[in-house]
Design brief:
The protein is of the alpha+beta class. The chain is built from 8 helices and 12 strands.
Length: about 325
Amino acid sequence: LYNILTYFYILSSVYLMILFLYSSHYVSAFCSIRVLLLFLVFFFFLMIRRPPRSTLSSSSAASDVYKRQSYDTARFPLARLLGDYLLGPDSDGRFQLSNLSQLHVLPYDEASQPLHPKLTKACKASQLPISQAGRRCEGANKKAMMDSAAYRRFLEAYRQFVIEVLVPFATEPGGQLLYQSPPTIRVVFPGGKRTISPHSDSEYRGHQAAEVNFWVPLTPVYGSNTLWLESEPGCGDYAPQELEYGQVLRFNGYQCRHYTVPNLESTSRVSFDLRVIPTALCTHREKTGEFPLEETLDGGNFVCHLHPSLTGFSPSPSPSLP
């Protein structure tokens, strides 16, 4: 019906325009009325051509190339929580830290227990020495890290962060989302290689056109130590995205190509990223690409609930991270 009405008004507008332009009455007053009527006809046509604001489509879901949003780091101390998870229990004080941007200065060559795989990978990419004990992160160690209380605290804060910060930023009021969980954690030290080559997510199998990408740096990012993104799909005008801790970047990663470069700055980069999809536009709910999805319900609840003992997500007692 909407398309039929659109075509009707197009034909009507053309007919009225021809009628008025070739009228035999050239009285000045009539000309003024004719101009006014033409304006009203075309204005009305433009208004009905505008789609309703509540209409969702896979192209409109991620239509804005990128936007920034601030959030309360006291309410969501994500840097502290992720730092607790990455560094693990600290028995001798050598691995305490006041800022994640200085994560590379810790004495990894003195580690007496297996390091988190993200730290091991970052050390190798920057050619930093690692102790033999630090390198020995085998299957049992990885499982213990994933089962740790620190990781569960981070995930609980992350889920609430999605509800309170990202849902209003990615969909209509009262809308529901499917979101990537867990997020992708990235750690890059000074001198580290690029973590991603130029690409758009549409180049990989299984991604969905309605995806919206979010990037959450937990350290200041700038220069060569950040994400590079084009301003429009296929434009190629790549520019570094500068953000501070407490900001989140929303961008159209499905269509716009993005990448990182070797970190030539003097600071580390710690971040996580995720993809969200409006539930009404999701084509398959289990995964997008290789990333598992969870769903929000009623604007504030989750399909996957945590154990009751994990209610609340106050930071761990350690005062070592911001």
